[in-house]
Amino acid sequence: MDFRRIRILIQREFEDIIWNGQIMIVLFSALIMVSTVYILNQFGFNVDQYEIVFFNAIPSVLGFISAFVVMYIQGNILVEEREHRTLKVLQLYKVSRTELLVAKSTITLVIATGLLIVAMIVFRYEVLHVVGGLLFSLPLLMMFLFLGTFLAEYSKNTIEVSLYGWPIIIVYFMLEGVVNSNLNTILITVFPNFHVARGFDYILRDDWTTASLYMVVPILWAVLFYLLLKKKWNASDQQNM
């Protein structure tokens, strides 16, 4: 990797993203979502001695930032290179796929991390909990980062990224509803939603050891999507030979 090229690509992305209407809409929607979750999280009601809440504070916000912001921004800024026919130009300048991915991912993660920090401040997290929450969130952010990259590989334009992405978002938040309903079924422990919710509970209790154990499953999901992405890249390289 040429880090000078990566730096130039990152600078180029920061300059372009300010004028990217789709990205600005995503960011505006994310800020609205953080505010909505904070307001609705203050309300709840009881049914048969069970407390029903609308959202689960930061775990729900993290799910939205990961599934909506990270996946869409990563997918859009990658597929735009193909859509605007600038990918071949970058290849002529010997920009590798890895360099492009690192540059785009840096932009996406900086945006997502900034939103998550704002959300944790709004929810009155202490500094230590903010730092721990950011580290704990990385596997889920990386999972959707690879998933967004995977969508870009199969999409011809940003519209297709949206079409392919919405079913993933719907399924993720259906699982989020199951986790928040506290159903006692072992099936939900397979999905990252369960572990994110439990992990943040232990972070707020300052039980860092137990919280770190709940990172294992999100890490496995992130590795799975990376392997699928790598397999797609290998197949594309073989077709181009």
From TrEMBL:
Carries keyword Transmembrane? yes
Q: How does it sit in the membrane?
A: Multi-pass membrane protein
Q: Which domain of life is it from?
A: Bacteria
Q: Where are the transmembrane segments?
A: 21-40, 52-79, 100-123, 129-152, 164-191, 211-229
List, for all copies, the residue spans of the domain called ABC-2 type transporter transmembrane. 55-228
Q: Where in the cell is it found?
A: Membrane
Could you list this entry's UniProt keywords, alphabetically sorted: Membrane, Transmembrane, Transmembrane helix
- Decide whether keyword Transmembrane is in the record: yes
Q: What is this protein called in UniProt?
A: ABC-2 type transport system permease protein
Organism lineage: Bacteria, Bacillati, Bacillota, Bacilli, Bacillales
